[in-house]
Amino acid sequence: MLQQYPEIMSNSGPPVSFMVEKNSVTPYSELIAQTKPQKSFWGKVTPAPVTFSLYSTNSEITTNALDGEVVIGTVNIPPNSPILTVDHLVEGWSEAYVLGDAEINLDQKPKGKRLGTLSVSSAWMKMSMIVEENIESDKCDTIRKRLNN
Questions:
Q1: 24: closest CA among 80, 83, 90, 99?
Q2: pLDDT tens, residue by residue, 51-104
Q3: Which of 3, 53, 62, 96 could be disulfide-bonded to 22 (CB atoms 3.0-4.6 Å)?
């Protein structure tokens, strides 16, 4: 679980990152990438215990900023803001974060199948997370166009 949250997001100053209610932001956002289940050597699908999904907001969203389950204020999330959701399938919890300070990296192999990997890093999260791997080149182009808007 991430540790820091702003008191209230302002429209001025540096971008901030904070926790939000997942159901209040994902219906108004576009899914960009998501952790895929792993396939074993025999082709059996094994779901990942933790699934990451990266969204981009379609319009301005007004919702609550959270500190765990405690509401710490109402925030306006601008259009095209990155939202990272984390679903822990084993423990059954789900969280969502607006990552104002996010660095989104789409690395694509220069030769061969040109598969890509999308990762998100943030000074606020203090780590980098791989959201999706083995992304086909057509989808990499689509993701690149969406991120550049």
A1: 83
A2: 999 999 999 998 998 888 888 888 888 888 899 999 998 888 999 999 888 889
A3: 96
pTM: 0.81
DSSP class per residue in the chain:
------SS--SSSS--EEEE-HHHHGGGEEEEEEPPPEE-TT--EE--SEEEEEEEESS-EEEEEEETTEEEEEEEEPTT-EEEEEEETTTTEEEEEEETT-EEEEEE-SSTT--EEEEEEETTTTEEEEEEEEE-HHHHHHHHHHHH-
d(CA 138, CA 27): 25
pLDDT for position 101: 83
Do 84 and 94 meet the contact criterion of CB atoms below 8 Å apart? Answer: no
Average pLDDT over residues 37-50: 80
Residues in the chain: 149
